[in-house]
UniProtKB/TrEMBL annotation:
Pfam families given in the database record: Fungal_trans
SMART domains in the record: Fungal_trans
Annotated protein name in UniProt: Xylanolytic transcriptional activator regulatory domain-containing protein
InterPro entries in the record: AtrR-like (IPR050987), XnlR_reg_dom (IPR007219)
GO MF annotation list: DNA binding; DNA-binding transcription factor activity; zinc ion binding
Naturally occurring in which organism (per UniProt): Cutaneotrichosporon cavernicola
Protein keywords: Nucleus
Length: 386
């Protein structure tokens, strides 16, 4: 249970793929002994958590033990997983998402991308079915926006095609609502306090804007000049880059005090600190995409570079906040650092200092033998270690 509690404290605000009160009840009631699908999910969540949590959260075990454990959990999850994908729920999609992040953390890009495509297609099918259970409906929203964020991140960092087109789906944003106020029958109003899931709500909106900017940029950049249908491929109207900047600034203006992008933001909870880093880097990624879009339009790009603000705030963040999402968040931080090298508003030395700060972690617990090749029967780990 220590790993799952650490997941809740550090990773749940970034990846809320469970309704926590229901999840705890299922653990206590030993749902893993009755439901093969749910057991596969818990093993996937454990494997994901081990490779994503800050090292300080896992000091109860040696690195070789953690490596062996996350390999066994991942292999057990794959062995228990149904390949028929019949009678799906958000649990099945969340299992695939955890496996995708796990494989990405082990730098197994090809198989990780295959799992992501699988999860996206199944999630789209799931969203097209009616759901009267308010908890399940909200979990479907959350998982979709997790997949959306992963897709947009990969598109930016690897320059790959978009897997989710905004014109294909219309999915409401996840609610900034704590789980204790969400029931199967509906939701109560969030009290005056800021929800632990507010960060996930806002980063989903930021990623949505990133998707819109990327679509416009690629339509402009990749339009084949010699094609006889080139004009038909273009967007009917190219909005000025200032419209995207204004939209981003509008999202950031809605941030609650605990998530505001300033070094002295209130709230010392790890959840808010980690979400601030995620929002900070995500909005910087959007600004870089807007800058590229402005260049494609031939606009003046002065003022688009986000480096000075981001670097100032990143320096104030504890290392645990920068590395709490494993290589997922760390790679986004490093991507920004490398993109900013040699920029006008920050020296290369500053970026190198930040790179060293982000990489200041002990040897990665995921860098040993591959766990996917381990032969594990479906009955491994019938009972979960607590």
């Amino acid at each position: 249970m220590r790993i799952l509690h650490a997941y809740h404290d550090y990773l749940y605000p970034l990846m809320p793929c469970v309704h926590w009160p229901s999840f705890v009840q299922q653990l206590v009631a030993r749902e893993d002994e009755r439901n093969r699908h749910w057991r596969a999910f818990v093993f996937a969540l454990l494997a994901y958590s081990i490779v994503q949590l800050p090292r300080s959260c896992l000091d109860f075990a040696l690195v070789p033990e953690l490596v062996r454990y996350h390999q066994q959990c991942f292999s057990a999850s794959r062995a228990l997983q149904s390949r028929a994908f019949a009678d799906m729920s958000s649990v099945d999609i969340a299992t695939l998402y955890c496996q995708h992040i796990y494989l990405s953390s082990l730098f197994k890009k090809n198989i990780a991308n295959v799992v992501l495509v699988q999860a996206i297609r199944l999630a789209q099918d799931l969203l097209n079915t009616n759901c009267e259970d308010a908890i399940e409906a909200e979990l479907r929203r959350r998982v979709f926006w997790l997949l959306y964020g992963s897709d947009r991140t990969i598109c930016v960092m690897d320059d790959t095609p978009l897997l989710i087109w905004d014109w294909d789906m219309s999915v409401p944003y996840p609610r900034a609502l704590d789980d204790e106020y969400l029931t199967r029958a509906g939701a109560f109003a969030q009290p005056a306090k800021t929800s632990a899931l507010a960060g996930f709500h806002f980063v989903s909106r930021i990623f949505h804007l990133l998707g819109v900017v990327l679509s416009a940029l690629r339509s402009r950049r990749n339009n084949p000049p010699n094609s006889e249908i080139a004009d038909l491929l273009s967007l009917p109207l190219y909005v000025p880059s200032s419209a995207y900047t204004a939209a981003l600034d509008g999202i950031l203006a809605d941030l609650p005090p605990e998530l505001e992008l300033r070094a002295d933001a209130p709230g010392d909870q790890p959840a808010f600190a980690i979400c601030r880093v995620n929002i900070l880097i995500s909005q910087a990624t959007v600004r870089q995409a807007i800058q590229a879009y402005a260049e494609a339009l031939g606009e003046d790009t002065a003022g688009h570079a986000p480096s000075a603000l981001v670097m100032t705030i990143l320096r104030s963040m504890p290392t645990d906040s920068l590395t709490a999402n494993g290589d997922s968040l760390r790679m986004k931080v490093l991507y920004f650092v490398l993109q900013g090298m040699g920029s006008d508003d920050a020296s290369s030395a500053d970026f190198l200092d930040m790179e060293a700060h982000v990489l200041h972690e002990p040897p990665d617990i995921s860098d040993e033998d591959d766990g996917e090749d381990m032969a594990v029967s479906p009955e491994v780990g019938t009972g979960l270690r607590r």
